Amino acid sequence: DTAAVHMLPAAALTKGMQGQEMTEFGLLKEAGAVFMTDARQAVGDPLVMRRALTYARDFDILLVQHVEDQRLAGGVMNEGELASRLGLSGIPREAETLMLERDMRLVRLTGGRYHAANISTAESVAVIRRAKQRGLKITCDTAPPYFALTEVDVGDYRTFAKLSPPLRNEDDRQAIVAGLKSGVIDGMAYTLYADGSIEAELPRRDIDQPLHDKHHLGPPGAAVGPRRRGVAHHAAGAEMRRRHADLVARGYPWLVAVADGAQQRGAFDQLIAAEREDLAARRGTDGVAGAADA
């Protein structure tokens, strides 16, 4: 009761998080789930999402969606001139906004409660603003990389900057900042998964999952890149991962940490400072390596 962070379990929205067949919302809520989500797997089928929102309304439970259409999100960084120059496949903003706009219409149709996780574009902020003005039961969050970094920070193929959704451009970053200031974006969040493998040394195309989901730009205390840089604010990062693994074993696929507002902001301030310091160190290392190779 005195802890700054409270651990609350969530349950899968669809069986196996495959986006095809709904789970038992009522039983899972009764067992203690505080919301339903397929974590980093977005529900692509609109009929499944409509049914889920309808059941969520009837059981008064929140749905959380990672708004990224995987059929459009087959690239490795933000689509645009920089991706073309680097010769990397891009992920268009529409991979996020098309799904978000679809879901807003389904929320209006069903009256369910909905939360959009990790929005990253200016257009998404506008979509959320309009939906709230219409009185829809929606909230959203973003993550520190989307208001602290841009696609430029990908630099010379820095794999630790591969996120889901990807880092966007400066206009998008400014819109995220404005959304946080105005209250359109309701908060900041980081996902934390049991899988903590390190793949930062692999080529970008050979990384199956975005490094955001593998703690390279993860929560305070998590590993950041191969150097395993941590933030002192949360020395219990390993304990969080142990507890999460235990919850996964018991059937809960996701974990949410709700922190006191002031302490949360302080933690994220430390996280951003650490990320910027680590990024500067990596740039310096890249420069030294490049000079030595030359």
**What's the total number of strands?**
9
Q: What is the molecular shape?
A: globular
Strands of the biggest beta sheet: in what spatial order? Answer: 8-7-6-3-2-1-9
SSE series: EHEHEEHEHEHEHHEHEH
The value of Rg in angstroms is: 19 Å
Q: N-to-C terminal Cα separation, in Å?
A: 58 Å
**Global mean pLDDT:** 75
Instruction: Give the % helix.
Output: 40-55%
Q: Give the helix tally.
A: 9
Note the main sheet.
7 strands, mixed
Uncertain runs? 192-244, 251-265, 286-294
Give an overview in words.
With 294 residues, the protein is of the alpha/beta class. The protein has helices spanning 25-30, 46-59, 81-86, 94-110, 122-133, 145-148, 170-182, 237-249, 261-293, and strands spanning 5-12, 35-37, 62-66, 77-78, 90-91, 114-117, 138-142, 187-188, 254-259. A seven-stranded mixed β-sheet has the order 8-7-6-3-2-1-9. The protein is globular and about 55 Å long. 41% of the residues are buried. Residues 192-244, 251-265 and 286-294 have low confidence and may be disordered.
